[in-house]
Amino acid sequence: MQLPETDADWPFEVHALSPALGAEIVGIDLEMAASPEVFPSIHAAWLRYQFIAFRCIEVSPAAHVAFAAKFGEVQVHVMNQYHSETGHPELYVLSNLDAAGKPSGKHPDQGTLVWHTDGSWNARTGHSTFMYAVQPPTAGGETHFCDMYAAYDELSAEWKQRVEGLRVFHSLDFSRNRRHGHEPLNAVQRAKIPPVAWPLVRNHPETGRKVLYLGDHAEYVDGMDYDEGRALIDEMNRLFTPDHLVYRHSYRHGDFVFWDNRCVLHKATAYDTAREARVMRRCTVLVDEPY
Fold first, then answer.
1. What share of the chain is helix, strand, coil (3-state, %, to 5)?
2. Where are the alpha helices (DSSP H) in 58-156?
3. Coil, strand or helix: which one is 285?
4. C-beta separation of 283 from 82 below 8 A
5. Structural domains for the chain
6. Distance, CA of 77 to chain centre
7. Over the chain (291 residues), what is each successive 10-residue block's mean pLDDT?
């Protein structure tokens, strides 16, 4: 099926959310979005804007997983302590509530507070992520998104020459250990996901555009002294995420959002974990095959 080429051809309204990236879809519900007649346009809008939002809608766990599955195979995350209790192991729940349903004062995953892309630590990386705001806080708890197409395009000639050909090892064990202050992965989980190397500069498989592939899971540079590579990764994660390339999404109850992990970095922002509730459920679709 040939995709519509312009926004005017799409059977819904699209409202851009920032100059950098992101769009809200208006005029249809999620069931219509998943229909054979409309879904190709949803996919085209997602490729163009990198981040799509449906605001303030009801999405059941089953509908959440079913819509994500339109994009590909839905991951069952190795960190099964975050799995939903809804009968859908594909769903990963981030919640600061205790057993009594009260804010615990503990953040469920400190690693989400720094720039990263979902699944870069996996042999089959994250293709797309689908997030539903079950209970957002009244302040904070946003998610920020950074356009890694533009990040590459804006590099100086010197930086482009410097990063071309570099391969970087990504590791979930590395990123989670240094952010949590303890080891959240057990030995069985760790054995399933050894570090994996990816090109730092690569071409998006659907758009063909060059993109930077980095983030907090990136641990060391192939063939480079470990400390030197670490310093370079930290410098790039800071320099390649400037404010003007960032869209900041503030959640309302019922926001259903999804983004392209192949060309976007994201991070959560802090909130008052002792006074504010924040419950988010998400799932990630895997790429068809390793890059």
1. 25, 25, 45
2. 61-69, 148-153
3. strand
4. no
5. 75-251+260-286 (3.60.130.10)
6. 14
7. 58 96 97 96 97 97 97 88 82 94 93 94 96 97 98 98 97 81 78 93 97 97 97 97 98 98 98 97 92 73
